[in-house]
Amino acid sequence: MPAITVEDTLVLPRVPRPDPAASTPRPVARVVTAPRQTEGAGFTVRRPFPGGLSMAEADPFLLLDHLGPQVNGPDEAKGAPWHPHRGFETVSYILDGEIAHHDTNGGGGVIREGDTQWMTAGGGILHDELPTEKMYRGGGPAHAVQLWVNLPPALKMTPPSYQAITKEALRLLTSDDGGALIRLIAGDIAGFDGPGVTHTPITYAHVTLAPGAQLSVSWNPAFTGFAYALTGRGTAGPEHRPIESGQLVVFGAGDHLIVAAADRQAEPLDVLLLGGLPIGASIAHYGPFVMNTRSEIIQAVEDYQAGRLGIIPADQLAPRSFA
């Protein structure tokens, strides 16, 4: 898992271990095994929510898709052709491989390993996410996650925007003993801020724990708290609940999160740590549209059909071919 790594974590700023006398660890409320399903042009993802977890339980998040890790042969890579969105933000984080993005707001480019594409769909946008010519022709490793972040009612129709967050822009931190590499994408951890600009208060990080390492990290008590295992095995919470790749940990109330890697494994434990301030608004959704009422969904469909969510550029209308 390339993402972004450092040779010596001890040179990084350290996240202090919470004082057990003053901070309460969050217990594990439940562990959800992500079901698999087919998306886009035919690729398979693991989706812990919605499915294993409802949108209301995931608030302020809506969806988490995990692709890979896998190795595609030549001509096997697939993507998501042009499609619309309204009412939320899509956050695509590439751990291995690369994809090309285009949208009707002028955003896009090639997103490579360690990079994050943060697209605010807001009032409406069309976009695609496809294998680059390199990935399509030659194949290779592919590993990525996409997170949907809800927008509060007052910001549902905010103008679309795009943030390209390169791996060099990520805030890199380590645990108190140097056993964990924390890549902070957005939000705050122990007073350190990630580069992602958010409309909804959240924290989002990718953590790699060496075999046997443990991370205890302060977490905003007003935020929801989740840990999703990308690869490896370990435990979560003060009760050391076993977890493995493809499982989502839902934490209960408290002041800090605990995750640990199993000490007898060949690979590290890689997890996403995420949580945010619940919005608490009603949710109406239909495919790529997430609003608050059924009438707003009907309007989104009508606007899409009328071309008011954007027009695909003429040079993107022809089928993609690398022949």
Model description:
This protein is mostly beta strands. It contains three helices and 26 strands. A seven-stranded antiparallel beta sheet has the order 1-22-19-24-17-14-13, with no helix packed on it. Strands 2-3-4-11-6-9-12 form a seven-stranded antiparallel beta sheet. It has a four-stranded antiparallel beta sheet with strand order 5-10-7-8. The longest helix is centred in the last third of the chain and has 12 residues, at about 295-305. The chain is globular, with a radius of gyration of 19 Å. Residues about 320-323 have low confidence and may be disordered.
Give short descriptive properties of this protein.
323 residues, mainly beta, seven-stranded antiparallel beta sheet, 3 helices, 7% helix, disordered C terminus
* Helix/strand structural class: mainly beta
As residue ranges, the low-confidence spans are: 319-323
Q: Work out the helix count.
A: 3
> What is the straight-line distance between the termini?
30 Å
Mean pLDDT, all residues:
91
Helix content: under 10%
Order of helices and strands: EEEHEEEEEEEHEEEEEEEEEEEEEEEEH
Strand content: over 45%
Largest sheet: 7 strands, antiparallel
Strand order of the largest sheet: 1-22-19-24-17-14-13
User: What's the overall geometry?
Assistant: globular
The gyration radius over C-alpha positions equals 19 Å
Strands, total number: 26
Assembly of the depicted chains: single chain
